[in-house]
Specification:
By secondary structure, this protein is of the alpha+beta class. It has 2 domains: 104 residues, no CATH class; 113 residues, 60s Ribosomal Protein L30, Chain: A (2-Layer Sandwich). It has 7 helices and 5 strands; from the N terminus they run ααααββαβαβαβ. It has a 5-stranded mixed sheet with strand order 1-2-5-3-4.
């Protein structure tokens, strides 16, 4: 009677071991199946093969080892271990592939952004060139002549109050066109020359001619034209363009002339 419990205990232990072995075998088989499925997924993905070939190879090697061990009785833990490692390498390969795809996508987006920015700059440049041509046409249309002194624009006496140097507001549009022209032609410089008629004191006329030329220069400067691009001269009643014996002639002589340099910035000598 006393031997029966011992026999029963041995049977239970053997049974438990068998059940544990069956459970371990089932777990290892499940791990092996998952590892195999994971490996097949990454192996069939060309992006993964391109971006993480070493990880895919390592996953395959570990899977092959797990499959070899699965044929040995009692090696379930080893099978599960290597199957797990194979699945992890497959996952790492997939993650590397996704990371590379994201980087490539970002690179494409950056190239597209740069392309759009370049197109925008080209469009702006084209627009600027067109605006520059428009500004040049405007200056030429307002200029009285082009001779050995260069391109010369004349601001008539009507843009100033009688005997005063301040520009009238009606001069703003004309001066703005000069500013635009100079902005689109950054190498050009100007000389602003003031003139009067012969009426009155010669010294006062000389001073007034300089003050009127300086008034135009100040407006250009205020609107963004660099001071070093502007030169100022006053000539008083010298160099008339018409006779001083008539009101019409005197009005023509009371003027401010803007002399433009050439495209290289070479300005004709002062008078």
């Amino acid at each position: 009677m006393n031997g029966f419990p011992r026999v029963l205990s041995v049977c239970l232990l053997v049974g438990s071991a068998g059940l544990y072995g069956c459970a371990g075998h089932q777990n290892s088989e499940s791990a092996l199946q998952r590892a195999n499925a994971d490996f097949q997924n990454v192996k069939s993905d060309t992006n993964v093969l391109r971006s993480a070939p070493k990880d895919v190879i390592r996953a395959g090697e570990l899977l092959a080892r797990a499959e070899r061990l699965s044929s040995y009785i009692g090696s379930s833990d080893d099978v599960s271990h290597y199957a797990y490692l194979s699945s992890r390498y497959s996952a790492i390969a997939a993650e590397h592939s996704q990371l590379l795809l994201n980087q490539e996508k970002l690179a494409r987006l950056e190239l597209e952004r740069q392309r759009l920015q370049l197109a925008l700059r080209e469009a702006k440049l084209s627009g600027a060139q067109q605006q520059g041509k428009w500004a040049e046409d405007q200056v030429i249309s307002l200029s009285t002549r082009q001779n050995e002194r260069g391109l010369v624009m004349t601001l008539g006496d009507m843009l100033f109050d009688t005997g005063r140097a301040e520009l009238k507001s009606s001069a703003n549009r004309t001066v703005l066109k000069v500013v635009q022209f100079l902005q689109f032609n950054p190498k050009r410089v100007v000389r602003i020359e003031g003139y009067t008629d012969s009426t009155g004191d010669a010294q006062e006329n000389l001073q007034l001619s300089r003050e009127r030329a300086q008034a135009v220069a100040d407006v250009l400067s205020d609107l963004g034209v660099e001071d070093e691009r502007i030169r100022v001269e006053g000539y008083g009643d010298q160099f008339p363009v018409d006779v001083n014996s008539s009101e019409q002639g005197r009005a023509q002589n009371r003027r401010v002339e803007i002399v433009f340099s050439d495209e290289k910035g070479t300005l004709s000598p002062a008078r």
